[in-house]
Amino acid sequence: MDSTQIIPSKIHLTNIKFVNENTVLYNGLLDSIPTYHIQVSHSMMHNLDKELIKIRLFLDVSADVKGKTFNQGGNYEVDFFFRIEDLKDHYQINNEKPLFGGTFVCTLLGISYSTLRGMMCNYWKDTHLNSLILPIINVPDLLKSKK
Hints:
The chain is of the alpha+beta class.
């Protein structure tokens, strides 16, 4: 299953939707340089008949100043909707449930997260978070962080 070639032109990101957006800006941090703590996790849903996959990314951002943690940044949930032309080639049925190849899921997570990085940079550009850029991550670690 993981040996199936992933053909980028068969992956279509069809929609992106903010499901939950809770931006928190704590003005008390304006004179400080916080250390940001960023947690990202995901969930995945599918409709095999329609060749659709939905990846939901959960983003939690907090700040630490002098050992004290602040909810500076907020909590976000963003859905990424994909149509996969060759979806049937990327899973096997196991106990009546589809089991998707890790490389395939990592590809969708990588597309989703890299898109989220750009979205959040743009989203935060006119706020106190304008210097915060989501870090580059090891996508297989994101694969392990299911919510």
